[in-house]
Amino acid sequence: MSRVKFFVRSDTLSPPRQAHREEAIMVKIKHIAIRTPDPEKTAAFYKDVFGLKEVGQARTGYYLSDGHINLAILKAREQGTEESPRDASGYAGVHHFGFMVDDVDETRRKLEAAGARAMPSPADVRQAAASGARSYYEVKFRGPDNQEIDISETGWIEG
């Protein structure tokens, strides 16, 4: 992936920012939004299982965060609007999202205790390699609104 490069004339910077910057910081995901018929139940699920913190309230839901990525839990609309026609029932929303956890087995128990459903094999468990730099393991569940959630102890595989 290439990085965005920009150059700044040093005579246009104020003294504290005098350092010459050649590369911008990589863009980061700001949030993921989920529409649900029961925002309170869905927010409680992500707080209880993954320890997300409530950082605000939306007009029709909740804002949660892990300190890096925010999750907007919003009430599903009865019908789409001109602004957001896909908000109607049956629209294609978030496909899945993944959480990097310290202990897959412990998190699996929390998910099951919270009512999440394990997805059937072989789609739920993938092991890219038994060991080595490219090994990766994840387990998939369905959340309270049938979202696909994967959990793993490692982040993305670097190519």
Helix-strand blueprint:
Layout: E1 31-36, H1 39-50, E2 53-58, E3 61-65, E4 70-75, E5 96-100, H2 104-113, E6 117-118, E7 125-127, E8 137-142, E9 148-152
Parallel strand pairs: 1-4, 5-9
Antiparallel strand pairs: 2-3, 3-4, 6-8, 7-8, 8-9
How would you describe what is shown here?
It is a single chain. This protein has 159 residues and is α+β, with helices and mostly antiparallel strands. It has 2 domains: 29-94, 2,3-Dihydroxybiphenyl 1,2-Dioxygenase, domain 1 (Roll), CATH 3.10.180; 95-159, 2,3-Dihydroxybiphenyl 1,2-Dioxygenase, domain 1 (Roll), CATH 3.10.180.10. The protein has 2 helices and 9 strands, in the order βαββββαββββ. It has helices spanning 39-50, 104-113, and strands at residues 31-36, 53-58, 61-65, 70-75, 96-100, 117-118, 125-127, 137-142, 148-152. Strands 5, 6, 7, 8 and 9 form a 5-stranded mixed beta sheet that branches. Strands 1-4-3-2 form a 4-stranded mixed beta sheet, covered by helices on one side. The N and C termini lie close together (11 Å). Residues 1-20 and 122-131 have low confidence and may be disordered.
Chain-averaged pLDDT: 71
How many strands appear in the DSSP assignment? 9
The CATH architecture of the largest domain can be given as Roll
Round the Cα radius of gyration to an integer and report it. 20 Å
CATH fold name of the largest domain, please?
2,3-Dihydroxybiphenyl 1,2-Dioxygenase, domain 1
Compact overview of the structure:
By secondary structure, this protein is of the alpha+beta class. The strands form two sheets. Strands 5, 6, 7, 8 and 9 form a five-stranded mixed beta sheet that branches. Strands 1-4-3-2 form a four-stranded mixed beta sheet, with helices on one face.
